[in-house]
Design goal:
The complex is a heterodimer. Chain A has helices spanning about 5-20, 25-35, 80-85, 90-95, 100-105, 145, 165-175, 185-190, 255-275, 280-300, 310-315, 325-335, 355-380, 450-460, and strands at about 70-75, 130, 135-140, 150-160, 200-210, 235, 340-350, 385-390, 395, 415, 420-425, 430-435, 435, 445, 450, 470-475, 475-480. Chain A is α/β, with parallel strands linked by helices. The longest helix of chain A has 25 residues, at about 355-380. Among the domains of chain B are: about 50-155, no CATH class; about 245-485, no CATH class; about 685-789, no CATH class. The two termini of chain B are about 50 Å apart. Classes of the chains: A alpha/beta, B mainly alpha.
Chain lengths: ~500, ~800
């Protein structure tokens, strides 16, 4: 053991990372914390020597992955499928009539409409037309999405178990309605590791919609690591001077000072390492280097001033305004270009209990152009093939009006039994509409897709068998899909 | 019947072996029921994947059976395959098949044991575990099972379900190393492995360790110097006594308990409205300060309201069971959430006091431990009788039941509550029992709207039934729990105290003493401590002092050659651990050494520095006081971190970076991670940068006349030791570089000195002052500054 690199790797192997492994934190943590590239794992999950790639806990994926990264455009609040993707002319014909009990079949209602004496059917205020080769019906609220309809796969038969926002979003993002489990991005970071040594593996951006600016809150646990190592947590990227919390040096400290400071810290920590041999110290040294690299790489990726004019035209005027959904979509592409594994956007404001016609139009306008632009932009860069893009919320909305139905106004309550999302790229079959709902837009009649099925399919596209990416915590092997979920093969290209 | 005792004679243990042989002859006449804690401790594998000479059922065999086999051959009879179960002796040795001609396990005959045939098979239709289970056995694990059967397949009951018995003290060779009984257990184990412990740590390291472990704060330089110069034989003990008598001790213990009790200042779901629970937190501090016996501490929190004529203090204690999250989301079904709250109390009870994962039995029988789904709901039913609503309505209401604490009673009776804002009628959620208990049911798949069979309050049979003389309510449950015969409560409690001082418990999984949990590194020591805790009247301070007085605790953390190879995880304690401080300790450390720390105890939670916009960008517009973060000013910026306002859906980011739990549920062990975000906090958080500036003022004012002395002063405050010459040299060189840079750019120096609200002091020209502040920040970013050696 005269080779110091081997020795350090051995020390790490033997203590820190084996002991961490004993509480379940494996080598993915190591790779990620070291900003990858320093170590890799052997078949037993032990760190062996320097090598390329970051190695998540899986080492090799279970299947050949179709997608290398994910951009998830989460639409928080429950977008109305009936004004966007699920064309139901019958609802316009039967406008104002009662929802038949034969359709409702005892479906649980939220406390917001369960006291309502009448459930008048409400057709969409907006027109639908067919688009693209697939002839998919899309709402006039989505003119840009309509143009990329042959690149995306619309799933009209999503369903969930939760009926309220907090449990429903938590369910989508973590596989459990109650807080405490890791989110999708954390699972991927844990399983697959990092592919960028200068940026976090799991990046998060938030934006507020204009449809209902004061609607539903978000919770930082949605991008939390749960019981996984905290290296797998989503790191929030924000507009403003501190794009990642505490990223910016204090006022008055130059980069030169910072660099020398870190060198001095490293040298003194190294002395301690030599004295105590505690591998935690070498890990800390590596952390400081990663932090320093992030201080350069994060502002670089956030600075969109080098984007050409036509890109701004693609994403729309909002893209110039930091913190908007459009600006975040553009940043998502930049992060994807840098091989960030999981890029999670949240766009708030889709909770249209009332004043739906005007509010949903504003929400749709917030996101339509930039979502479509992201598809086109990835495509023109040859990245759509290995980037999975997902667009959707936590549940759908009722086919009857919440509150009074008038010619120009109505609202819709939460509806878990069917709703629509779309996916594109990364091994998804393009240009199809999957699943069907009844003429009332209330029940699924064909090819239901449960949230856990969606999660299983997402993992599959990244090369992961959802039953085999597990983490043993408190004696039990947990996984994203809990004890359910099945791959939806029909969605695969 | 064989006993593994008789064949385990090792050097220096002859007397015990003779005793064991004598026992054996008795044992032959008794039904087979071994207690792990009465055994010799099994060979230590040192983290190696090796087959031990003597295979022990509890330590080597059952972990494999539990983890790879119980899922289909364990306690849950609904998913049991082929009628075979390995979680009970009868099940494991039963005849199989219709003719009953086969046995999974035939003692001494591995070749004819179907267990062995199947685990060595590569026929996918025959092999175990089956391929579709995604479980597999490693070769050495197969070899362990085989060897166990070869050696007679001795069965033992699960160690933690049998009451702790005071073990005999083991003999050791190196008597002079021993301070108290703890050391005998530790040393005997080391000597058994041919290992030796470390000698005592240097005094300055020791006082640092002790002060952080008992108070969460660093020792002052005066305290270090006093200890270094105190030559009396009880100098160390005096330090312990001083620390245990301090408010800081009580605060530190309370901070640990807040994790267990999932304390927060908000309700935790959706809009995450503010709640007032801090008077309960003040009571916890008070209880630790008074050294309230721990059994009483628990009894009051579980059932204070059910005690005869409960005092206000006893009622306040019951807020423990109201710290769970509560929703205000319009439209939810209240009963669904009410059931969640009861489930949360049940889980907290089992994690905190039983060290069991009872929640696994919410939807079905437990897969690994002897807990039936029915037993889960029997325990659940104790917590099911609160007159509460699952939904906060109207919006912003205080959830029933609660009491109001008047300003008068606080100032006259409940003086431990720091009513700093002189509020009147402080509302506090507490427990209350319905006159007619709510009927509890087994809930199918754990769902609130799928009741099955009704159940009444009861305790899991494997842990002992609730005696008929006890009332079937929370008070009876508390008495059952606190009975000296209870197999888990004292072990689980003392294990957490051990974890507080050593970083890792004797059982490394404090949340799981069941079949899937880690086995104790020192089973006899754990039992010794558990029995002692009860015998000494659950005296927490006495127990911490007893542990701190051991030679084991006082060892140095030196890593001698070969130690890492022999025992990488230091499970045998041949050295003291090196541990990073917790989130609270790190921030408090910075505040303490700068002199900024505000030592006020208790009171409403405070809002120190936090990056702007975090609450604002996630709010949905509701939430009232929690929609906008209004930072406090002045002294409130410098309170101990345990007083930082805890908004569950957006917890303080600098604390989260250092592994603070979200407080969504009971947590008995935090992660210990190292991440780049931690580096960014220590380098750039205004709270830390400001504290380092103020530390620099202190160094200039009191730390000496020149840069070397001042740097050494700051270094010593941060690490509790004098810097070595090489360290001083490196830092002084850096100081010169920074000074030159700031002199060239005095504007930058002024800006650097303006971070934070603390008024600037013009002790020196700005470039020099800024250079000292940068040095302070450099020193505080050393690994050693946030580490306990």
């Amino acid at each position: 053991m005269s080779d110091p690199i081997n020795e350090r790797s051995h020390l790490m192997n033997r203590r820190a990372f084996m002991s961490r492994a004993s509480i379940g934190v494996g080598t993915a943590a190591l790779a990620s914390l070291l900003g990858c590239n320093l170590f890799r794992t052997n078949e037993n999950g032990l760190i062996t020597a320097a090598g390329e790639g970051s190695g998540g806990v899986l080492g090799l994926t279970h299947f050949a992955p179709k997608a290398k990264r994910v951009i998830y455009l989460f639409q928080s609040g429950g977008p109305s499928q009936l004004e966007l993707f699920d064309h139901k002319p019958l609802l316009n014909q039967l406008r104002g009539q009662e929802l038949p009990e034969s359709v409702r079949m005892g479906q649980r209602l939220t406390g917001m409409t369960s006291g309502q004496s009448s459930f008048p059917l409400a057709g969409s205020f907006y027109k639908f037309n067919q688009h693209g080769q697939s002839g998919a019906w899309l709402s006039e609220l989505l003119p840009y999405t309509s143009k990329v309809v042959d690149d995306i796969c619309i799933v009209k038969s999503m369903y969930t178990e939760a009926i309220n926002h907090d449990p429903a979003i938590t369910f989508f993002q973590t596989g459990s309605q109650q807080p405490g489990r890791p989110s999708i991005g954390s699972w991927l970071s844990y399983g697959l590791g990092s592919t960028n040594e200068n940026l976090p593996t799991f990046c998060v951006m938030l934006s507020r919609g204009t449809g209902r600016p004061n609607g539903q809150p978000l919770y930082s646990r949605l991008w939390g690591n749960g019981f996984l190592h905290s290296l797998h947590q989503g790191v929030q990227f924000r507009s403003g001077k501190d794009p990642v919390l505490y990223l910016q040096d204090p006022d008055g400290m130059s980069r030169q000072s910072r660099r020398e400071m870190l060198d001095r810290i490293a040298a003194l920590n190294q002395q301690q390492l030599d004295q105590f041999g505690d591998p935690e110290i070498s890990s800390r040294i590596a952390q400081y280097e990663m932090a320093y690299r992030m201080q350069t790489s994060v502002p670089e990726v956030m600075d969109i001033s080098d984007e050409p004019e036509y890109i701004y035209r693609m994403y729309g005027p909002d893209a110039m305004t930091p913190g908007t959904f459009a600006a975040n979509c553009l940043l998502a592409r930049r992060l994807a270009e840098r091989n960030v594994r999981f890029i999670q956007l949240y766009h708030m404001g889709w909770d249209q209990h009332d004043n739906l016609p005007s509010a949903v139009a504003r929400q749709a306008k917030d996101v339509d152009q930039a979502s479509a632009a992201l598809i086109l932009d990835l495509k023109q860069r040859g990245m759509l093939d290995d980037t999975l893009v997902i667009w959707g919320g936590e549940f759908g909305r009722t086919n009857y009006s919440q509150g009074i139905l008038t010619d120009t106004n109505y609202g819709r309550d939460h509806h878990p039994r069917c709703f629509s999302i779309w996916m594109a790229g990364g091994g998804i079959k393009p240009g199809i509409v999957y699943g069907e709902t009844d003429d009332f837009g209330y029940n699924i009649t064909e090819n239901p897709v449960h949230v856990h099925d969606f999660q299983a399919t997402l993992l599959h596209l990244l090369g992961i068998d959802h039953e085999r990416l597990t983490y043993k915590y408190q004696g039990r092997r947990f996984r994203l899909t809990d004890v359910e979920g099945k791959l939806v093969k029909d969605l695969l290209a | 019947m064989k006993s593994s005792i008789s064949s385990k004679v090792s050097k220096g243990r002859l007397a015990m072996a003779i005793a064991a042989i004598a026992l054996c002859s008795v044992a032959i006449l008794l039904p087979q029921c071994h207690n792990a804690n009465a055994e010799e401790e099994p060979a230590f594998a040192g983290g190696q994947k090796a087959v031990p000479e003597e295979v022990d059922f509890n330590f080597h065999v059952k972990p494999i059976l539990s983890d790879r086999c119980f899922k289909c051959h364990g306690p849950d009879n609904r998913t049991r395959e082929g009628g075979l179960r390995f979680d009970t002796r009868d099940g494991a040795f039963a005849a199989l098949g219709e003719a009953g001609g086969r046995h999974a396990i035939i003692p001494d005959d591995p070749d004819n044991s179907t267990l062995i045939q199947r685990i060595y098979s590569d026929d996918p239709n025959f092999m175990m575990p089956p391929p579709e289970s995604n479980l597999a056995l490693e070769d050495y694990e197969k070899a362990i099972l085989k060897k166990w059967i070869e050696q007679g397949a001795t069965w033992k009951e699960h160690w933690s379900f049998l009451p702790p018995k005071k073990p005999a003290l083991p003999k050791v060779s190196n008597e002079s190393w021993v301070h108290n009984e703890i050391d005998r257990f530790v040393l005997a184990r080391l000597e058994q492995q041919g290992m030796t412990p470390n000698g005592p740590a240097p005094r300055e390291q020791l006082i640092r360790r002790l002060t952080f472990d008992l108070t969460g704060l660093p020792p002052t330089l005066e305290e270090i110097d006093a200890y270094l110069s105190d030559q009396s034989p009880d100098a160390y003990e005096k330090v312990i006594d001083r620390l245990l008598a301090s408010d800081a001790y009580a605060e530190h213990m309370a901070a640990k308990w807040m994790d267990v009790a999932r304390y927060a200042d908000t309700h935790g779901y959706q809009d995450d409205l503010e709640r007032v629970m801090w008077p309960w937190r003040d009571w916890v501090i008070h209880a630790f300060r008074q050294d309230m016996p721990f059994d009483e501490f628990i009894r009051w929190q579980l059932a204070g309201d059910l005690l005869p004529n409960p005092s206000r203090e006893q009622l306040i204690a019951t807020a423990f069971n109201r710290n769970h999250k509560i929703t205000q989301e319009g439209g939810v079904i209240p009963e669904e959430y009410r059931v969640e709250y009861v489930a949360d109390r049940t889980q907290t009870f089992s994690t905190a006091f039983l060290g069991l994962t009872m929640e696994c039995a919410r939807c079905h029988d437990h897969k690994y431990d002897p807990i039936k789904q029915e037993e889960y709901y029997q325990l659940f039913s104790f917590f099911n009788n609160v007159p509460e609503n699952g939904l906060i309505e109207p919006y912003g209401a205080i959830p029933e039941p609660y009491i109001k604490l008047s300003r008068k009673e606080i100032s006259q009776v409940l003086t431990f509550i720091n009513n700093a804002d002189t509020l009147d009628d402080i509302p506090l959620m507490v427990m209350q029992e319905m006159k007619t208990p709510r009927q509890a049911y087994i809930l199918k798949r754990g769902q609130y709207d799928h009741p099955d069979k009704p159940v009444s309050p009861g305790t899991p049979k494997s842990l002992g039934a609730l005696p008929a003389k006890l009332p079937p309510n929370r008070l009876g449950l508390a008495e059952w729990l606190l009975n000296p015969e209870h197999p888990l409560m004292a072990r689980v409690t003392v294990n957490r105290f051990w974890q507080q001082l050593f970083g890792t418990g004797i059982v490394a999984t404090p949340y799981d003493f069941g079949n899937q949990g880690a086995l104790p590194s020192h089973p006899k020591l754990l039992d010794w401590l558990a029995v002692k805790l009860e015998e000494d009247g659950w005296d927490v301070k006495a127990m911490l002092k007893y542990i701190a007085l051991s030679a084991t605790y006082q060892q140095s953390c030196e890593l001698r050659p070969g130690m890492m190879e022999r025992d990488p995880e230091n499970r045998l304690l041949s050295r003291a651990p090196r541990l990073r401080f917790t989130a609270e300790m790190i921030r408090d450390h910075a505040l303490a050494i700068s002199g900024l720390l505000n030592r006020e105890v208790g009171g409403p939670s405070v809002k120190p520095y936090q990056p702007q916009g975090l609450w604002e960008e996630t709010t949905g517009g509701g939430g009232g006081s929690t929609s906008t973060y209004v930072m406090d000013e002045g002294d409130k910026l410098y309170r101990r971190s345990m007083y930082t306002f805890w908004k569950r859906t957006v917890p303080p980011p600098s604390m989260m970076a250092f592994d603070a739990p979200t407080r969504d549920f009971c947590t008995v062990k935090r992660q210990e991670t190292s991440t780049p975000l931690q580096a960014l906090v220590l380098l750039n958080d205004p709270q830390i940068v400001e504290a380092c500036r103020v530390l620099a003022y202190r160094a200039v004012e009191k730390g000496g006349a020149n840069a070397r002395e001042r740097i050494a002063f700051m270094f010593r405050l941060a690490t509790s030791r004098q810097p070595q010459e090489s360290e001083i040299k490196a830092l002084a060189g850096y100081f010169d570089d920074e000074l030159a840079r700031f002199k060239a750019e005095p504007e930058a120096a002024s800006r650097f000195l303006s971070v934070g609200q603390y008024p600037q002091k013009e002790l020196l020209p700005a470039p020099e002052m800024a250079a000292y502040a940068v040095l302070a920040n450099t020193i505080f970013n050393l690994d050693e500054a946030i580490t306990k050696g």
